[in-house]
Amino acid sequence: MTTALYDVPGPRTRQRHRLYGLGGTVVILALVAWIVYLLFATGQFVAAKWTPFTYTGIQDLLLQGLGNTLKAFAFAAVLSLALGAVLATGRLSEHRIARWVCTLLVEFFRAMPVLVMIFFIYVALKVEPLPALVAGLTLYNGSVLAEVFRTGVHSVDRGQREAAYALGMRKTQVMTHVLVPQAVRAMLPAIISQLVVALKDTSLGFLITYEEFLHAGKLIASNLDYDLPFIPVVMIISPIYIGMCMLLSWLANWVSKRQKRNPKVEAVEVAAPEPGTLLPGGRPKPPA
Predict the structure, then answer these.
(1) Separation of alpha carbons 225 and 153, rounded Å
(2) Could you tell me the pTM of the whole model?
(3) What sign does the dihedral 235-241-247-249 (CA atoms) show?
(4) Alpha-carbon gap, residue 167 to 93, rounded angstroms
(5) 156: helix, coil or strand?
(6) Three-class DSSP category at 2
(7) Do 88 and 175 form a contact (C-beta atoms < 8 A)?
(8) Which one of 203, 234, 269, 285 has the largest count of C-beta atoms within 10 Å of its C-beta?
(9) CA 148/CA 125 separation, integer angstroms
(10) How many Cβ atoms are within 10 Å of 58's Cβ, its own excluded?
């Protein structure tokens, strides 16, 4: 079969694609094997570099850093969503001044590097490490989420808005009961992606002495007097960061599937007409 976009690949093309896939797999496996060989050759798996992680004090330091990372992320995520909603509402407002002010804030904080904002709040305003980190992450991610919310609302078919206004609904009712519930599905992947960015950016806290997860790993790697286990620290911290990001993605998929099962958004099946069904004029439908 052919489609309007492309022709279905034939036998030779499918065979060529299999060869490409096989070649790419071989290259990736070779690269992984080379990295593992280098790790063994440089002595990264010797017992002396991994023994410190069995100490209770080292484990407590890592757990405390992980807890601080999750705390900063929780504050930044909630505040970023709230700020994004406020700025998006302002950009969608019919009042020109509110729209211009929110647009200026969004464009400014989106263009400003998040590390610069964190340093400015920490050094110039003399704010404590945790509030400085949360404020910088909130300003940046909130401005990005504002654009996500605005484009999500605009992605809803225009007829939905017009039909709601035709029913006599006010703008606030149209936004909260018609547009936003439909836009959430389109916005959810982008929202989760931005929250993943916020989670990873919490690692910038170690630059302002906030004792988060990466800061704890840096202390462990730099303060031990023997063998400096930088690579083992990275091999422990990286999978945990990846696991937290994957957990956020799983949460997004779970929320999306739950929305699809919600009876409020499910399509309603209409029974097929049967003999005897009344026509719009009120007369019985003639038999076939």
Answers:
(1) 56
(2) 0.76
(3) negative
(4) 21
(5) coil
(6) strand
(7) no
(8) 203
(9) 30
(10) 17
